[in-house]
Specification:
single chain, Rossmann fold
Length: 206
């Protein structure tokens, strides 16, 4: 847990700021719960083999991470004889997202996209630094209530998402450290994509 960082207050130069960021990120990566990441990888791998969909959601920087992991999962495991993950970013269709925000309210922009396509066994990967974004929480609740799996990626104190999601990878930081949390979340996403490729290769899928 990084508890004494105030970049703007402590840094006396740009170099100090960069050094603090780099060292803090190294500390966060080293402290990641690898057992939790492995559990998420096993869930995604199993659901992929069963043909289930993986819905990825987030806001702001976490929306970029959601799109990134959906791309990595979809294209990364292109192994012969292995089912490719059906990873779907719910943040990437701007016309639909804005229509839903306008007509159904921004809190419902993700859950409305899952009504109909969502099937039992599908997974929601919910990414939120604060863990308190209402549209993300509603997507997770929907998955929980409809026989799906929910994976949270959180920061700060974990917020509501840490308890609501069935499995969670938590990056503990003081409130407001979005850059560090998002950096660590990107690393977790790359770890997960590599785990799925590794699992497939061990089954002879490569």
């Amino acid at each position: 847990m990084i508890n004494d960082l105030q970049f703007w207050g402590d840094a006396k130069s740009v170099h100090d700021l960069l050094d603090a960021h780099a060292k803090s990120l190294q500390s966060l990566i080293s402290s990641l719960d690898l057992a939790a990441i492995e559990q998420v990888a096993e869930i995604l791998d199993a659901r992929c083999q069963q043909g289930n969909a993986i819905y990825c959601v987030g806001n702001g920087g976490s929306a970029a991470t959601a799109s990134h992991i959906s791309a990595d999962l979809s294209w990364g495991r292109r192994m012969g004889g292995e089912k490719r993950p059906n990873a779907i970013s719910l943040v990437s269709n701007a016309p639909l997202l804005t229509a839903l925000g306008n007509d159904a309210g921004y809190d419902n922009v993700f859950v409305e996209q899952m009504i109909g396509p969502f099937r039992e066994g599908d997974v929601v990967v919910a990414i939120s630094a604060s863990g308190n974004s209402e549209n993300v929480l509603r997507a997770v609740q929907f998955a929980n209530e409809h026989g799906g799996s929910s994976v949270g990626m959180t920061g700060f104190d974990g917020g509501k998402l840490m308890d609501l999601s069935q499995t969670c990878v938590h990056v503990a930081t003081p409130p407001g450290m979005y850059e560090l949390v998002e950096d660590a979340h990107h690393a977790v996403c790359h770890m997960l994509a590599n785990c799925l490729k590794f699992m497939a290769s061990k089954r002879g899928g490569q």
